Amino acid sequence: NLRVSSEGHEEDFGASMQDEALSESWQVPTHRLGNDLQPHEDAENFQALCRGEQLLSESYLATLSCFYDHRNNHYLRLMPVKVERHYWEPELLTFHNVISDSEIEKIKSLGRPMMTRAMVQGARGKGNTISNTRTSKVGWLKDTIHPLVAKLGDRIQRITGLSTDLAREHAELLQVANYGVGGHYNPHHDYLLVDKTEKELLYNIHPRELVMGDRIATFMFYLSEVRRGGATVFPRLGAAIWPVKGSAAFWFNLKRSGGANEATLHGACPVVHGTKWVSNKWIRERGQFLKRPCGLHPDD
After folding, report:
1. Element (H, E) at 211
2. Spatial separation of the C-alpha atoms in residues 93 and 66, rounded to whole Å
3. What is the DSSP string of 52-86?
4. Where is the composition biased (Basic and acidic residues) (predicted)?
5. Where are the beta strands (DSSP E) in the chain?
6. Tens digits of residue pLDDT in 164-199
7. Residue 82 near residue 96, CB atoms below 8 Å
8. DSSP character string of 244-294
9. Does residue 147 have a cis bond before it (omega within 30 degrees)?
10. Is pLDDT at 127 greater than 60 in this prediction?
């Protein structure tokens, strides 16, 4: 059942659970969770979550809930957003009914002509290379291509409280992605810079990326129902977000300190039956220093 959020209570409760969330009491005995997993453990958890197995204990799941929230936005006080919590810290949320069917069809129609095979960033000056870890087609939409694209950027800004101003390079273009049967994305982090060495930043990263800062947060619209498969899963947390058309997943990739939140390792499960459409907005650090200030502790 949905309830109206009591912001202060939830904030305090989330803080109290931060140190406990990855403790053994929250885990199913057959699977270990946390940031100290070996690569094979990440892979095993990824596969288990994609099979629909439950890796979090009933006691932890009992602390999660659905609620209405105005997200500290005056517009949303009149029309609160429906929120589903999947994890406390790092916070994994789904916002339900945030994009209509007609808007979905328009975004898909705008994205189709732009789509190419998903690629990864190569060394500076060497272009991009086809990714074997991500079997999908992607396209990028500028705000100027259609009023709806800019409208969705504004909507994301209201819901997240973060700036999505493209002109000031506070966010990336809206990405549209399509996964066919078997389409997947192996576990990865969305941040681009914080885990790089000085040499990698110098030779592998375009200077413009450094100006924009890292990907502080991910906002992902689900544009289709997937008959089977296609979940977004977090192997180190034991959490899974199953695609619901018209909803959007959201999480922060970085801590308030600007450090990497390694627990946000996530992947897209293979599509077993049907097709999967998503649309991503990656929000950058630039312009967010007043929107998401540092906490009181260095590791916040």
Report:
1. helix 207-212
2. 10
3. T---B-HHHHTT--EEEE-TT-HHHHHSPEEEEEE
4. 1-12
5. 2-4, 66-69, 81-87, 92-96, 116-117, 119-121, 128-130, 137-141, 174-179, 185-188, 215-222, 228-229, 232-234, 239-241, 248-252, 266-268, 271-273, 276-284
6. 999 999 999 999 999 999 999 999 999 999 999 999
7. yes
8. -TT-EEEEESB-TTS-B-GGG-EEEPPEEES-EEEEEEEEESTT-TTTS--
9. no
10. no
User: In the chain, what are the helix, strand and coil shares in percent, each to the nearest 5?
Assistant: 25, 30, 45
Which pLDDT tens digit goes with each residue over 148-160?
999 999 999 999 9
CA triple 175-146-166, angle to 5 deg = 55
Contact 43, 187 (CB under 8 A): yes
Closest to 265 in 3D by CA, of 248, 251, 246: 251
Which residues make beta-bridge pairs with 92? 87
Distance separating alpha carbons of residues 157 and 61, to the nearest angstrom: 29
Residue 45: φ, ψ to 5°: -65, -40
Q: How many whole angstroms from its chain centre is CA 138?
A: 16
Residue 178 burial by CB count (10 A; 0-12/13-18/19+): exposed, middle or buried?
A: buried
Q: Give me the amino acid identity at 56.
A: L
End-to-end CA distance of the chain: 31
* Three-state secondary structure call for residue 127: coil
Q: For 50-83, write each residue's pLDDT tens digit.
A: 999 999 999 999 999 999 999 999 999 999 999 9
Pair 242, 50: CB distance under 8 Å = no
Q: Tokens 């060394």 appear where?
A: 123
Tokens encoding 194:
């914080």
Residue 111: CB atoms within 10 Å: 24
Alpha carbon of 202 to those of 169, 213, 215, 271: distances in Å?
Answer: 20, 14, 18, 37
**Residue 3 corresponds to which tokens in the numbers above?**
């309830």
The answer to whether the beta carbons of residues 208 and 172 sit under 8 Å apart is no
